[in-house]
Write a structure and sequence with these properties.
Layout (H helix, E strand, L loop, with lengths): L1 E7 L3 H12 L4 E4 L12 E2 L14 H5 L14 H14 L4 E2 L6 E4 L5 E4 L1 E3 L4 E2 L9 E7 L7 H10 L3 E7 L2 H6 L8 H7 L3 H12 L7 E5 L8 H9 L4 E4 L6 H16 L3 E3 L4 E7 L2 E7 L7 E8 L10 E3 L2 E3 L7 E2 L22 E2 L6 E4 L2 E8 L9 H4 L2 H18 L1
Parallel strand pairs: 1-2, 1-16, 2-13, 9-10, 9-11, 11-12, 16-22
Antiparallel strand pairs: 3-7, 4-7, 5-6, 5-8, 14-15, 15-16, 17-18, 19-20, 21-22
Helix pairs in contact: 1-9, 1-11, 3-11
GO molecular function, one term: glycerol-3-phosphate dehydrogenase (quinone) activity
EC number: 1.1.5.3
Keywords: Flavoprotein, FMN, Oxidoreductase
């Protein structure tokens, strides 16, 4: 099979790049091994939440200029323009989000901690200030038996922000049926139970029956695998303002991000190869000619350009053994310390050096093997070296902006 471009990896990076190339009219294929880390996603896109000294960033575009030279953002030709392009791409895929590059806002985590963010899905709790919420009183209404929200931590941290919280619980016949199996009381499973219009109306009746005193009712974000219609309906039907708190994984907002981007990509005619893994490829004259996959070992996937978007250690885009850190698909050059003792810091909350390890790229995001550049293989997202996404709160921004940059680099050729 022959394509203009093949993207390896189906997370936020891969979908962003594939969708951008497909919009430009390229014949593309996206090959993904399975569920991506979007299933752990918060529903917010981070551009830069903290600087390299650990201080909260309010104005991300200004702070990005001061980042170390190794940071992937320095390989993006125009960060502001790519950020605006990323926001449009999400909106065009049906993902309506609040936020601006001018100033970060603060999203509420499942633990009740405020985290800086650039874009957040409509309806999720967010605030302009880190140490306060926009209400004096709230009612947290949890689903009876639902354990993917640590209620005591959430409530305690909201109260620390100066907002009084009352806690209520509710159920419906459909939810009671699901409770018979504890494994069913996970966010994505509950969302399927409540997808039916009758079940949603019973949920509305149960919430209205709580006699909530808060200015706003906070609910676990369990609605809407593919779109926000159920959330919108609920907010219209309940007689009190509603906001949603993202849950512990699996995250329904994260699943929605993946679903909407995938659907937008496939609607453009992009080939989506799910539950398959690239096992290697053929390199000739400094170029990657084709790749092979686990499920179709006899099939060769040819392309003019390739993008590696396999992620970091969590998604096995990077791996390690006693000999060192390596990229497992093609054996690409990586930036990593040779001394295993230098991989980690002693204190778990310190800046862990291994988080900055990743695939080495040039200024155009082209990779190398054994010191020789591969002229048509790009890397993007968290597989890249040069930053700690956990400490900087820049992971999803790096994912999207470097994916867009790789796509533009391909289209310029």
């Amino acid at each position: 099979m022959k394509f203009d471009s093949i993207i390896i990896g189906g997370g936020l990076t891969g979908l962003t790049c594939a969708l951008t190339l497909a919009k430009a009219g390229q014949r593309t294929a996206l090959i993904t091994a399975g569920q991506s880390t979007l299933h752990f996603h918060s529903g917010s896109v981070d551009l830069l939440g903290y600087d390299e000294q650990g201080q909260t960033v309010l104005h991300p575009l200004d702070a990005i200029r001061a980042l170390s030279a190794s940071h992937p953002y320095h390989k993006v030709d125009d960060v502001a323009a790519r950020a605006e392009e990323a926001a449009r791409l999400l909106a065009d895929a049906g993902l309506l989000m609040d936020g601006t590059t001018d100033r970060n806002h603060f999203r509420l985590s499942p633990m009740g901690v405020s985290k800086p963010a650039w874009l957040t899905l409509n309806g999720l709790v967010r605030s302009a200030e880190e140490d306060s919420l926009p209400w004096r009183t709230v009612t947290f209404a949890n689903i009876r038996g639902f354990l993917d929200i640590p209620t005591e931590f959430l409530v305690d941290n909201i109260r620390r922000k100066g907002t009084d919280v009352e806690v209520k619980s509710f159920t419906t016949p459909e939810l009671e049926q699901a409770r018979r199996s504890p494994s069913e009381m996970r966010a994505t499973n509950v969302g399927k139970v409540l997808a039916d219009e009758t079940a949603l109306r019973r949920m509305v009746e149960a919430i209205d029956g709580l006699e909530a005193d808060g200015e706003v009712i906070l609910l676990p974000a369990v609605l809407g695998v593919a779109d926000a219609r159920a959330e919108s309906s609920l907010r219209q039907l309940v007689d009190r303002p509603i906001r949603f708190v993202v849950t512990m994984p699996p995250s329904m907002p994260g699943v929605r991000l993946q679903t909407c981007l995938r659907q937008a990509y496939q609607q453009l005619g992009g080939m989506y190869c799910a539950s398959d893994a690239v096992t290697g490829g053929c390199f000739e004259a400094g170029r990657l000619r084709y790749v092979t996959t686990e499920n179709m070992p006899d099939e060769r996937f040819y392309a003019d350009h390739f993008v590696l978007a396999t992620g970091s250690f969590q998604s096995r885009g990077l791996m390690s053994n006693y000999r060192g850190v390596f990229e497992p698909v093609f054996g690409l050059d990586v930036d990593a310390a040779d001394d295993r003792g230098a991989w980690t810091a002693e204190y778990v909350y310190d800046d862990q050096p291994y988080m900055r390890f990743g695939v080495r790229t040039d200024e155009r995001l082209l990779v190398s093997r054994n010191g020789v550049r591969v002229d048509n293989l790009y890397a993007s997202g968290s597989v890249l070296s040069g930053h700690n996404a956990l400490k900087l709160a820049d992971g999803s921004g790096v994912d999207m902006l470097t994916a867009l940059q790789a796509a533009h680099n391909i289209l310029k050729k």
